[in-house]
Design brief:
Elements lengths: L5 E6 L8 H5 L3 E8 L6 E9 L7 H10 L4 E3 L3 H13 L13 H4 L1
Antiparallel strand pairs: 1-2, 2-3, 3-4
Length: 108
């Protein structure tokens, strides 16, 4: 059983009075998740981050994510990778992988 490829987006937004530390962090990320044809337990996960000075655009984010190199991981590790991308974009370690357990609904 396979699933359709899909994207996960996050955008924290830019504010007028962001400090230098916040401007150094990415604004968001786009993750492109697609099945691996040979292995039903693995997925191909590609994550790309959006810089602060760029405008966050989902269509461009998906195009850039598809150009990233393959990262084949187990399906159960997808929430962990998405939580790490979220924490990198926000600049803190507040989100756990439980926040992204909803992704399993699309993978199984």
């Amino acid at each position: 059983m396979s699933f359709k490829p899909f994207a996960v987006h996050f955008n924290r937004g830019r504010r007028k009075y962001d400090n230098a530390k916040t401007k150094a962090l990415p604004v968001g990320f786009t993750a492109w998740i697609e099945p691996v044809e040979d292995d039903h337990r693995s997925v191909n996960l590609r994550i790309v981050h959006c810089a602060y000075h760029d405008d966050f655009n989902k269509k461009l984010g998906i195009e850039h994510a598809k150009q990233m190199p393959d990262n084949i991981i187990n399906k159960r590790d997808v929430p962990e990778y998405l939580a790490a991308a979220f924490n990198y974009a926000v600049g803190c370690r507040g989100t756990t992988e439980q926040y992204y357990h909803w992704v399993w609904k699309y993978l199984l």
